[in-house]
């Protein structure tokens, strides 16, 4: 009887692998869309200066609210209308949650919208470990130094610069576009969930959500010679785990072979 079960399991594994290999062999990628070749106009000097002004806003998030400089977050919020007048004259902006901002760009027709996300808060800075001051926005040799340049005021700046330029050119998107910006991402604050709740209450189900994402990488997968980027189908979760352990008493001069501290240390990687 056991032999029959093993043969059945083996047959199932072989069939499963056969399906995978056949499907892989039959897979044909869709034709690659080619760029229109249209020249993209970028005012590099303005874009860099706008980014510098964003960096100079010390929007540092802390779990301890007493350490929070709310005036810096207000400064950032008031900066955006000054450097992006077209956006703020033609798109609506509303504040959601503690310091979330949601922009609405009306499209030509009804349909599921696109949501472009970023956050403008940053983590605390240890200035002694920086080669340049973290909040002065120094530009040297084509490099902009500052906390938030990558995570993720750079993304926010890119979204806003593109929208500002497209509005000047008279562009109107086919469907609605939303810009969802949070100032609490680094501390997992309630502003992002509040924006999600707003969409749910309005019955809006986006066709696509673009967040800060990961990196565009090379030479990661065997057989893939071109650059690769991950398309996420879910959001990573968050969990807190508390470990408790008990042991017999004793004296540090005569420790057991396996101490309670060692056992706890072993448990951490075992569940991670």
Would you spell out the secondary-structure blueprint of this structure?
Layout: H1 2-26, H2 44-55, H3 70-83, H4 85-90, E1 92-96, E2 100-105, E3 114-119, E4 139-140, E5 143-144, H5 153-168, E6 177-182, H6 191-202, E7 208-210, H7 260-271
Parallel strand pairs: 3-6, 3-7
Antiparallel strand pairs: 1-2, 2-6, 4-5
Helix pairs in contact: 2-5
Structure description:
There is one protein chain. The chain has 272 residues and is an alpha/beta fold. The protein has a domain at 44-210: Aminopeptidase, CATH 3.40.630.10. The chain is 36% helix and 11% strand. It has seven helices and seven strands; from the N terminus they run H-H-H-H-E-E-E-E-E-H-E-H-E-H. The protein has helices spanning 2-26, 44-55, 70-83, 85-90, 153-168, 191-202, 260-271; strands at residues 92-96, 100-105, 114-119, 139-140, 143-144, 177-182, 208-210. A five-stranded mixed sheet has the order 1-2-6-3-7. A hairpin with a 2-residue loop joins strand 4 (139-140) and strand 5. Helix 2 (44-55) packs across helix 5. The protein starts with a helix and ends with a helix.
